[in-house]
Amino acid sequence: MFQPTYPIRTARLTLRPVTLDDLDDVYAYQSRPGVVRWMLGAEPRTREQSRASVYAMAAEDAWRAEGDCLTVAVVSGVLAGKWRSPGPRGAEGRTRPAQPQGRAGRQACQARRSSQSR
């Protein structure tokens, strides 16, 4: 089992567990048709469906067994990350706001655009 000690700090960001306080942010992206068609493969979610999603994300705070997810949020912005446990099926996914927020968000978008144009 692996359970991080929170908050997780790097030079540029601080990660924390997802909590019910994230409902507004999660609902903001889960209710957008242009987002859910790629993420959920379904219709935009209602606020209550997003609430259930947030409860599920909040429970993903450790890798207890292969295939488990670890979901975290960035302290200074609307971003959630999900990492599947290490192993042959390990994966990582990210969700970010539609518009970059602050200098770090602009820099990340610029770096992504730069790498895509190569």
Automatic annotation (TrEMBL):
One of its GO terms (molecular function) is acyltransferase activity, transferring groups other than amino-acyl groups. SUPFAM superfamilies: Acyl-CoA N-acyltransferases (Nat). Residues 12-65 form the N-acetyltransferase domain. Keywords: Transferase. InterPro entries: Acyl_CoA_acyltransferase, GNAT_dom. Residues 96-118 have a biased composition (Low complexity). This is GNAT family N-acetyltransferase.
